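Sequence design from tokenized structure. All designs in this work follow the same two-part layout: the structure record, then the generated sequence. An example of the structure record is given first.
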């Protein structure tokens, strides 16, 4: 349920009854239990506008707050805060309703929209490496979340499959003959070998340049070689997506080449609107107040990333009908997207109503604070990183249970992949973060393993209980009250994460929930004989709701749960 909205409505009604005009009311979660469940701190700003004493204004409002439903108590604190406590019976009833609902009380958007999420974007010239990890993980989570909340999400994988390097690659592939497919198993090595030939053999370099022209002009032989290369490259990507449980498919691929035919139209339309100026032979858009222009065509007639991105934006807004377009791309591209978005709006390629977002993220670092590399300074292949995650996970859990080899292997995959994804998603996406195996595979702290263990422990309670539970909740003490309120915050948190495109809101909530449940479990016995049936059933219901909420949250993050660890 939208818990904050309910409390906001009650506070706003109180203002109306008190004869005080206010446009919006926004309560926040209380930082400490003694401050209540929620706080309203908008009195100070309002008092300044009305030229009144804030505490006196708060006292004037207090008698008008409805205490017959959700709110049990409200108090004025400090210079004019209003602390609000929810009624335990109301919290219990709402938790029961959430438990009966397959979506845990989370409503879908009343007015869903079509959203394009552009993420992953590997280059077909090389295997996926750690530089693709964050875009892939964050993008898939954002897409999962928006789908869960009811939007129609179109996943787009804007792969790099066009440009001068492909003339070099297909020329080398042709040169390899029937052995070419085998050498493509290591795309990194294949690229290096092709580059050496390009740099050292003039005739080969000239042939590669000719092939670029032939590809662009539609030569069937060159296009067949190009398609073969793309298919094999995409196969490598799909192996990585499979390991990561990423929902991207071939149908989601909209490569650079897809927009190639529209690039001349982009230039013509910009000229028609008087937006282009020539500078040193290049066609540019000069944005107001900026010295550096957006170059959309080079002096030799070639196009740039900005041109393709403008064509893609126009396609996504006008053909796909997207009302929100999210680009999950490295923060270093922020200036590029700011300029391209501005040009797209000024040119009318995208209407003013369409929301354009650069979902920027920071760099993955090693423990020394440098970008994550292999020991010899090379790029870490993503598939190698994920395989190592599974190996390390197996080491961390092999002594936990008597597991059959196949069971251990499956558990290690779930835990290892979950650890890599959760570690990335648990920090503010705009921040750089340190990749630390020991930290991400720890049973303590805000880790995937901690969350999976919390879920598994809840499942063990029900295995031991072994009977059907009655979903009747009675809030008996402060820890149960806090747990119930936390569970009711799930919907608000998801909508905030969707608005901010911030997966770390989800991980932060799940960690807080799991930690709170641990304290509840330690203080309030569930299966002990001295616990009466009504209390036992209530605590079991809270445990069940907690387990389902953890599972639902992890599922949005693309992380599996396990019944035992």
């Amino acid at each position: 349920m939208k818990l904050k909205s309910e409390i906001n409505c009650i506070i706003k009604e109180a203002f109306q009854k008190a004869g005080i005009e206010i446009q919006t009311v926004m309560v926040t979660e209380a930082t400490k239990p003694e401050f209540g469940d929620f706080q309203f701190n908008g009195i100070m700003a309002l008092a300044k506008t009305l030229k009144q004493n804030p505490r006196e204004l708060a006292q004037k409002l207090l008698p008008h707050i409805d205490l017959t439903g959700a709110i049990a108590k409200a108090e004025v604190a400090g210079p004019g805060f209003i602390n609000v406590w929810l009624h335990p019976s109301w919290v219990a009833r709402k938790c029961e309703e959430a438990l009966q609902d397959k979506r845990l009380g989370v409503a879908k958007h009343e007015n869903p929209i079509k959203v394009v999420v552009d993420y992953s974007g590997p280059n077909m010239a090389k295997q996926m490496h750690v530089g693709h990890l964050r875009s892939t993980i964050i993008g898939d989570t954002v897409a999962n979340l928006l789908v869960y909340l009811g939007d129609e999400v179109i996943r787009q994988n804007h792969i790099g499959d066009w440009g001068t390097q492909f003339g070099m690659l297909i020329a080398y592939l042709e040169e390899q003959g029937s052995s070419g497919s085998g050498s493509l198993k290591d795309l990194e090595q294949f690229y290096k070998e092709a580059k050496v030939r390009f740099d050292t053999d003039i005739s080969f370099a000239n042939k590669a340049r000719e092939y670029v022209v032939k590809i662009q002009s539609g030569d069937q032989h060159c296009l067949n070689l190009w398609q073969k290369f793309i298919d094999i490259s995409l196969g490598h990507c799909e192996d990585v997506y499979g390991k990561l449980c990423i929902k991207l498919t071939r149908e989601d691929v909209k490569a650079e080449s897809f927009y190639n035919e529209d690039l001349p139209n982009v230039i013509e339309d910009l000229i028609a609107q008087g937006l282009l100026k020539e500078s040193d032979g290049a066609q540019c858009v000069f944005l107001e107040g900026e010295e550096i222009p957006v170059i959309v065509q080079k002096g030799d007639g070639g196009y740039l990333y900005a041109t393709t991105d403008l064509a893609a934006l126009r396609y996504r807004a006008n053909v796909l009908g997207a009302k929100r377009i999210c680009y999950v791309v490295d923060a270093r591209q922020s200036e590029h997207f700011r300029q391209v978005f501005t040009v797209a709006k000024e040119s009318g390629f995208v209407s003013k109503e369409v929301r354009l977002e650069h979902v920027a993220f920071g760099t993955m670092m090693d423990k020394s604070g440098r970008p994550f590399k292999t020991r010899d300074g090379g790029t870490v292949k993503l598939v190698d990183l994920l395989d190592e995650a599974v190996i390390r996970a197996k080491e961390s859990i092999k002594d936990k249970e008597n597991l059959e080899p196949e069971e251990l292997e499956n558990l290690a995959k779930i835990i290892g992949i979950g650890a890599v994804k959760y570690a990335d998603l648990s920090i503010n996406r705009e921040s750089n973060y340190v990749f630390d195996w020991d930290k991400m595979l720890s049973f303590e702290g805000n880790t995937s393993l901690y969350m999976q263990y919390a879920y598994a422990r809840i499942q063990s309670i029900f295995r031991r209980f072994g009977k059907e539970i009655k979903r009747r909740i009675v809030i008996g003490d402060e820890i149960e009250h806090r747990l119930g309120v936390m569970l009711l915050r799930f919907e608000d948190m998801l909508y905030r994460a969707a608005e901010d495109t911030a997966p770390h809101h989800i991980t932060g909530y799940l960690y807080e929930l799991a930690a709170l449940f641990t304290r509840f479990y330690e203080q309030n016995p569930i299966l002990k004989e001295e616990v009466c049936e009504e209390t036992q059933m209530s605590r079991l219901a809270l445990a069940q709701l907690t387990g389902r909420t953890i599972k639902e949250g992890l599922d949005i993050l693309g992380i599996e749960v396990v019944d035992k660890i």
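The two ends are 32 Å apart (CA to CA). We note this feature because it recurs in several other targets discussed in the main text.
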